[in-house]
């Protein structure tokens, strides 16, 4: 076992190259599976229901969302992989990985509430939990890998913007 620079938390040795590459693809598959399912829920509702909603002035064009989200999902996957790799495995990164999974579930739940169930008020409450989960994940990741935590900052920024959009759409369509 090795210790972090601060000497406070023990970590296992860094996984081998083959396992590391395999798990990188695993993280990418995990994150993009959530993205694909969320995207399917979203796409099914863009033309009719969503098109008919009143939206705030800062709402981007529909094509912007998948471009931004795909980039963010890539960063999210790499971030999770870096924490796993730096910690030396899932056991050593346990609490941080639990937060990682939780923020992914909150991310997915927003799509279900907003686009799937058309529940704007619930989506407002849920996106606040998503923001908190992302912040908690960043803090936990920072303790293991500053780079992994930094990779989540654009995700947090976009989710804060999504919080504004979600709240504004809810208020404009009550």
Structure description:
The chain has helices spanning 17-46, 64-87, 94-116, 120-142, 146-151, 153-172; strands at residues 2-3, 10-11. By secondary structure, the protein is mostly helical. Strands 1-2 form a two-stranded antiparallel ribbon. A hairpin with a 6-residue loop joins strand 1 (2-3) and strand 2.
Keyphrases for this structure?
174 residues; 2 strands; two-stranded antiparallel ribbon; Ferritin; mainly alpha; 2% strand; elongated; 72% helix; disordered N terminus; single chain
Count of runs of 4 or more consecutive helical residues:
6
What gyration radius follows from the Cα positions, in whole Å? 18 Å
Fraction of helical residues = over 70%
Q: Find the CATH superfamily.
A: TspO/MBR protein
Query: What is the name of the CATH class?
Result: Mainly Alpha
Major sheet details = 2 strands, antiparallel
Tally the beta strands: 2
List the domain count as a whole number: 1
What's the layout of helices and strands?
Blueprint: E1 2-3, E2 10-11, H1 17-46, H2 64-87, H3 94-116, H4 120-142, H5 146-151, H6 153-172
Antiparallel strand pairs: 1-2
Gist of the model:
This protein is mainly alpha-helical. Helices cover 72% and strands 2% of the residues. The chain has a single domain (30-172), classed as Ferritin (Up-down Bundle), CATH 1.20.1260.100.
